[in-house]
Amino acid sequence: MSEITLTDKTFEVEVLQSPVPVLVDFWAPWCGPCRLQGPIIEELARELDSSKAKVAKLNVDENPASAQQYGILSIPSLLVFRAGKVVEQFVGVQAKDKLQASLNKHVA
Amino acid sequence: MSDQKIYDTIIVGAGAAGLTAAIYSSRRAMKTLLVTQDIGGQAATTNEIENYPGVGLVTGPNLMNEFKQQAQQFGAKFALAEVTGIIKRLDDRGTPVFTVSTNTGQYITNSVILAYGLTHRHLDVPGEQEFGGKGVSYCATCDAPLFKGKPVAVVGGGNSGVDAALLLSKICPKVYLIHRRDQFNAEAVLVEQLKQPNIELVLNSEVQEIRGDSRLRSLVVREVGDATKTRELQVEGLFVEVGYVVNSKLIEGLVELDQRKQIKISFDGETSQPGIFAAGDITIISFKQIVISAGWGATAALKAYEYLQKVKGFRGVKIDWGLAQKPNPTTPLA
After folding, report:
1. Checking CA distances to B301, which of A55, B55, B265, B278 falls within 20 to 30 Å?
2. Pick the catalytic residue: A28, A31, A91, A93?
3. Hey, where are the domains in chain B?
4. Which of A31, A40, A71 lies nearest to residue B142, judging by beta carbons?
5. Which CATH number applies to B136-240: 1.10.3210.10, 3.50.50.60, 3.40.50.80, 3.30.450.40?
């Protein structure tokens, strides 16, 4: 399965009400390191069992409300949500294994 | 995740030097692995590049993405990991073999090219770590737009500091530029542009403490040489642009360094350790430029190839010199 593209409008339903943990990549097109993170997120999304966890991307440029809500002040920032709450947060580019391990930890 | 394959070369770092080294080594049919924490290095965080020959105006990420794709196209493999150690041993024929350990596994290689460049210098003041990602930023081009409409500060008097202040002045109501001296090291043409109503210069000053709650709220700055003269600036962001240093933890004792901990190299990119080569900003070269690092990356890879021919009788494919070329009799191909 591929990653979900979030907007301020869909954030509530896709992330906060999700029955499974969601990893959200906060990114922007002007940010060099984000362009490295993007393909890693896509690969992770393809490999993931979508019945256990989800992977999503949010463009902070187009969706400032969600970014502000979660105090995103450096990108890329990667947040893991479970049951509507942030359970883990990473700043800067992260390797796939590390993100995978974090999601595994939060899968019920 | 370790693999038992023996690489011909492992390149540490994937900036201009490392990626170019990978293009050259893989074109010589060397089994090449790049171990890196990012792709594109410092160049990938640069907004506009106008001095890379042959491509005109280009963004840093786009140019470095081209470098990466070119390396991949010729067969270089990538591992996104942090190198934690490089250990040399000699095989039964007395030839060096290197074990490169990372946070995700170990790799074996017959040669190493060190090209991981420089890392941001930190301020080392209270609050810096705590507010990392919560207001303290080391990448103005990445994070500046997230501070739109907020008061911010920049620390640093070089080109990157002044650049960051100018960038931020377009979107923030107030920008403090903090610098330890009363004159800037930046180019005069940039300094001239600082005369903006919303930029306030805080000269002869340094950051003493970063304060906040769940995010950065203020900075305490003090006058250089008089710690009693302090002032609190109400800002929501601090952009740290105080230059770069070599992260020498990995290489001390392995290869010879100069006083600034940069790697000493020969004109051919050799370090003091046979089998280990180096290229780019991590070395003693004076000019930290993309085109120069790329050239040194190519040099190091070609020298590594020559080294492997000598010690291993390595037989690659000489794409760059034409496939029909006769072997050089002084470097026998076993």
Report:
1. B55
2. A31
3. 3-118+246-312, 136-240
4. A31
5. 3.50.50.60
Q: Which residues contact B138 (CB under 8 A, 6 or more apart)?
A: B120, B239, B240, B241
The domain B3-118+246-312 having CATH identifier 3.50.50.60: the answer here is: yes
CA distances from B321 to B23, B129, B166, B183, B223 (A): 15, 50, 47, 51, 60
Span B45-58, pLDDT tens digits: 777 788 999 999 99
Say if residue B325's pLDDT is above 60. Answer: no
Is A91 within 8 Å of B133 when comparing Cβ atoms? Answer: yes
Q: Is B212 on the interface with A (CB under 8 A)?
A: no
pTM above 0.95, yes or no: no
Q: Amino acid identity, residue B34?
A: L
Same CATH topology for B3-118+246-312 and B136-240: the answer is: yes
Q: Does A18 participate in catalysis according to the annotation?
A: no
pLDDT in tens, B174-192: 999 999 999 999 889 889 9
- Give the gap in angstroms from C-alpha B5 to the nearest C-alpha of chain A: 21
Q: Considering only alpha carbons, which residue of chain A is nearest residue B146?
A: A73
Rounded to the nearest angstrom, the gap between the alpha carbon of residue B252 and the centroid of all alpha carbons in its chain is 18
Higher pLDDT, B258 or A95: B258
Model ipTM?
0.80
